[in-house]
Amino acid sequence: MCNGRVPTNRLVGFLSGNFSENTWRDEYLGVNAKVTNGKRRVPNGLTFQGSWAEWPVGDMGQTVPYYFTNNEFALVATVSIHEVPKEDSSPVPLIGVRMNDTSSTVLFGLSYTHEKKWLAIPGKSAASRFVDGWEPNETYQVLLQMDYDYWTIVVDKEEIDHKSYDKNLFNSHRISHF
């Protein structure tokens, strides 16, 4: 589903078409993702219907090859939403970053609504806003980025959310998975 050339400068992991049973293999031989009910429906990726994948970047016991995700990362995904959620439904989570606390808190991420709008997760920040723009079966490039000061969410080069975060979150917990 990737369109065009895949950037490789500083790339440390790449999930594409290497999938079998419940494992989505990292092309860079780093950390594989665990898939629940995913199906291969596109040449270089998977289709998820009522299912999900977890990429355990910080949840591997003593071996944590992607520890840097607690300081800085950029996660890019090509996504397509195949049907509009029911009218009375809550925003549907699409992609996010989770903590290793007891509630598996979503630090930040992206959801979509039945009104065909994007919404940042959590949608509590003053900068967070519903953004028009998704259509069923269209593909979108989604970027979740964390640097030393900010979390940023971008869809097809349009910023959905950009906010500073409390670094004290990482005093007792770490990022467990995407």
From TrEMBL:
Gene3D superfamilies: 2.60.120.200. InterPro entries: ConA-like_dom_sf, TS_C. Residues 7-178 form the Trans-sialidase C-terminal domain. It comes from the Eukaryota. Signal peptide: none annotated. This is Trans-sialidase. The lineage of its organism: Eukaryota, Discoba, Euglenozoa, Kinetoplastea, Metakinetoplastina.
